[in-house]
Predict the 3D structure of the following.
Amino acid sequence: MRFFDRQTDRELREKRALHHDLRFAVERDELRLVYQPLVRSDRSVVGFEVLARWRHPVQGEVSPGKFIPLAEDGGLIFSMGAWILREACREAATWSEPLVVSVNLSPIQVKQGAELVDLVRSTLQQTGLDPRRLELEITETGLAGDRSRTTSTLAELKSLGVRIAVDDFGTGYSSLSRLKDFPLDKIKIDRSFTAGIHLNPHSSSIAQSIITLGHALGLTVLAEGVETEQQLAILTNESCDQMQGYLLGRPMPIEHYAPLVRPEALDSPLAGAV
Ligand code: C2E
Ligand code: CA
Ligand code: CA
């Protein structure tokens, strides 16, 4: 037996309506991608993480935290995920700088196995993007489940030449043996640890241990959610390889980062003339 009050009822209705609208979001051109820089400790840019945005005609901007789970619920995530991947690779292939583009995969996409591998392969072929420039972010949830199946999916993806990053590391079920067995390239320390790094000795110890563990396994380690100079200094001191966060650059339409992806456009004598 379940009890519904008015609030639950309204929320359910709202969710159903949003789910309905989401089905048409791609065709109506309401989805777009924003790009957030991934930087080294000297602040040089390695590449960008791609984050989806939905501009709802009535509700305005709906956060991915809200619409990605909705897309996962109804299986819409497959077509939407394919669009996001294609759009991100197509964009990155136009850059003159060979920067990395990092795309989030839903655990449901990872569970697809061979179909996901086919999607990534055909997207790389169609867009002409060098596979070494594509990074795929998978959360710990995406790595849970059938171990041998996940291992072979990851191995096949890697054989295409792309890199695999574990997203939100430390928040889920982080089995260390999985880290050892899976063919991974990078760990992204969840921003909840970065947030407390200068205040809470536990957060700081956890971040330090993840960095040490990652390096021992030969992985690149990135810290998410860097918002202050103090956090950046601590992480740099702890030999964290890469960082990401509002301090280093907000998620923005790619035009905002044009000087980074096409620096020659600025040097050209015609720059500013058009
Ligand atoms: P995520 O993959 O952990 O992405 C990072 C989130 O942290 C983004 O939120 C970003 O805007 C936010 N962020 C970045 N720097 C900072 C910072 O310094 N401080 C704070 N407080 N937040 C920061 P966003 O864009 O709302 O995305 C939320 C989540 O939605 C993502 O978390 C990811 O799990 C999911 N998501 C976004 N785009 C996609 C997508 O294209 N496909 C899939 N499957 N999931 C996506
Ligand atoms: Ca991510
Ligand atoms: Ca993350």
